[in-house]
Amino acid sequence: MAKGDPGVTTRGRRAAPRSKRAAAANGPELVQLLTPEGERIESATGPDGTEYRVDFTDEEYRGLYRDLVLVRKLDAEATALQRQGELGLWASLLGQEAAQVGSGRALRTQDMAFPTYREHGVLYCRGIDPIMPLGLFRGVDQGGWDPNEFKFNMYTIVIGAQTLHATGYAMGVAMDGKTGTEDGEAVIAYFGDGATSQGDVNEAFVWASVFNAPMVFFCQNNQYAISEPLERQTRVPLYQRAAGFGFPGVRVDGNDVLASYAVTRHALDNARLGQGPSLIEAYTYRMGAHTTSDDPTRYRIASEVEAWQAKDPIARMKAFLEKQQIADADFFAAVDEQARTESVHLRERVLEMPNPEPVSMFDHVYPHGSAELDQQRAQFTKYMESFEGSAH
């Protein structure tokens, strides 16, 4: 996909000079390359003076839009499946597509990613079949794939635990001598704003810093830790926490796929060159519920959601493509049809998943078995057999 380098100047015909008005609206903290209205900003400067920019071909711009639309449609299909009783639970990424697609496309082939349970967009960018996590949430398998094949670890439910896993992996990368060159390996760990209050995350910051691990901590600040707003999580912008641990932090407009790409690519390149960890705070918004078991109307008002909908990551990318005449109505219609077709196919595959035998839940508890487990299996089997031949 995109091969643009944040250090390469964008072609002049695609970029408009960054206006004082835009800078004033965003403040000095937020790195943004695409406004909510779809206006391109030539470059943006981070808190440490780093200048961020991208240089994509027209096809790469269209590819990013296609990613955003497909990821949202597949996510919506999974939500619908849960509402119809076909999945036990689903954690939607609605509104966070740009942060995930931008950062996911910034990863190089050799880089390793550690997700939470919401990184469906990153998973898609890593080439993993979107059916894979649905098996987990449907309860028909353990939701596993080969992390080494896709350079994408399995979903992690325990809040913040994956940051320690990622840091340990990154320390191993450094100890194996896989950093220090442009072809080096970097590691990225995803988590939310609520996870920054967890001890695991802060311990990961310490270890990554003192061991100069090739780590990028990618925080999707979607404004709520389930029902707790951001002000209950921190008294300062989250990206500023990095300074206390001795590494740089930057806040990016998480609804801007171009800026999310540029900032992540820069941080990953620094990590692979041996310059240590960094923290990215992708400032975005969870438009939907925390999970399908959540009711967000209990803790936030409709006007807040409407204000963020005006910053929709897909709408702004579409506006940019239209204004720059990079895509036409036929392209947008084709993308919508592709998204519809793939979502229908996903639904069909989910409904075709065979239900496992209930007793199989004992199969993968211990690698070498257990006498106590064998006893439990026998009791459960006898219990299930008691229903055979009975009327239901």
From TrEMBL:
<dbReference type="Pfam" id="PF00676">
    <property type="entry name" value="E1_dh"/>
</dbReference>
<keyword id="KW-0560">Oxidoreductase</keyword>
<dbReference type="GO" id="GO:0000287">
    <property type="term" value="F:magnesium ion binding"/>
</dbReference>
<dbReference type="InterPro" id="IPR001017">
    <property type="entry name" value="DH_E1"/>
</dbReference>
<feature type="region of interest" description="Disordered">
    <location>
        <begin position="1"/>
        <end position="27"/>
    </location>
</feature>
<dbReference type="GO" id="GO:0016624">
    <property type="term" value="F:oxidoreductase activity, acting on the aldehyde or oxo group of donors, disulfide as acceptor"/>
</dbReference>
<dbReference type="InterPro" id="IPR017596">
    <property type="entry name" value="PdhA/BkdA"/>
</dbReference>
<keyword id="KW-0670">Pyruvate</keyword>
<feature type="domain" description="Dehydrogenase E1 component">
    <location>
        <begin position="68"/>
        <end position="353"/>
    </location>
</feature>
<feature type="compositionally biased region" description="Basic residues">
    <location>
        <begin position="11"/>
        <end position="21"/>
    </location>
</feature>
<keyword id="KW-0786">Thiamine pyrophosphate</keyword>
<protein>
    <submittedName>
        <fullName>Pyruvate dehydrogenase E1 component alpha subunit</fullName>
    </submittedName>
</protein>
<dbReference type="InterPro" id="IPR050771">
    <property type="entry name" value="Alpha-ketoacid_DH_E1_comp"/>
</dbReference>
<dbReference type="InterPro" id="IPR029061">
    <property type="entry name" value="THDP-binding"/>
</dbReference>
<dbReference type="GO" id="GO:0009083">
    <property type="term" value="P:branched-chain amino acid catabolic process"/>
</dbReference>
